[in-house]
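Sequence, please.
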């Protein structure tokens, strides 16, 4: 029984060496994007989950990853990641009681001004 369970786990787990770089980059970006969406207040319970300081950090990291990774992944992948990033940047701007100056918002040092 234990041998069957171990084999099932082994079959379900891929060796990181087998995962293409584009998949690792996009997966990391999606995790950052999901966490930022929660922190910017786009989740189930915005009253208790919104944390704009944390969202800023996540959006900055996401913008850096997308900017640096874009030349390494296909335009198809980069375009959808950029769209998601822009949506988060706009949601952050809307959620802020004191908006950042144009070009000074999270990630804008990597992406340019978002409005």
């Amino acid at each position: 029984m234990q041998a069957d369970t171990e084999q099932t786990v082994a079959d379900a787990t891929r060796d990181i060496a087998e995962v293409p770089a584009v998949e690792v980059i996009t997966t990391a970006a999606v995790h950052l994007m999901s966490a930022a969406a929660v922190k910017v207040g786009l989740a189930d319970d915005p009253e208790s989950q919104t944390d704009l300081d944390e969202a800023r950090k996540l959006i900055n990291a996401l913008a850096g990853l997308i900017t640096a990774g874009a030349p390494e992944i296909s335009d198809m992948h980069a375009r959808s990641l950029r769209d998601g990033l822009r949506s988060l940047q706009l949601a952050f701007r809307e959620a802020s009681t004191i908006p950042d100056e144009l070009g000074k918002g999270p990630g804008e040092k990597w992406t340019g001004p978002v409005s």
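The chain is about 65% helix and 0% strand.
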